[in-house]
Amino acid sequence: MKGMITIKTLLKTGAICFGFLLLSSCQKETNITAKQIVEKAVDVHGGLTNWKNVKQLSFDKTVTLFNEDGSVELKTEQFQLFQFQPKLFVKLEWEQNGQDMQILFENDEVSKKVNDSLVTDEDELQRAENAVFAAHYVVCQPFELLTSEAELSLDEKVTFNNKECYVVKVKYEWDDIDADQWFYIIDPDTFEVVANQVILTDHTSWVENLTYDTTTDFKFNAHRKSYRLNEVGEKTYLRAEYFYENFDVIYE
Description:
46% strand
């Protein structure tokens, strides 16, 4: 992976100590497995049975991106809708620079409109497709971690919020050396997913789940902050802040 091989290697060997994460030098002996931890987290966040019965989920998401100096790069208010049954349908809508933007995933195809004009540029459509699948991946967690495609393993514990938390690493059979690496930080007492660490090709992000929405049968994220990490795992700056509200769940 470009620029990240050293970090990946250290993570795999457990030789790295993230400054504020305080990775332990060795995993303590425990009988609990990664799958059991995720199962408990899924139960806390609403339960797999409830999740499997969801036909449609929608909410409003506010995203603020920051530059390294703390100035605002971009702020958007986005409406997201996911229809899971009978076939996946995704709608993302927002306003940007005075223009109405819409991305649809329908019948296994992605389309994008700007002020009702269809986008035909292949690079733009590829970015739109990436946005759809990224949004879908995030909204389906931690529930979809229990699918057969996800390989779960325990990584070194981290100290976060004054607790030694479980770290579950997720891998998929199609992953190559450049695939994003996801780590789920799970509270040992509440089994809430309290943070994520994501290693991408050009940077590493640390995302903290600060508050949760409980207006539905689920415990969804309500406020998150994403930080960029340097090569030794220290926070360098706040990259993004997310707010989620107006959740609506429709069952089959």
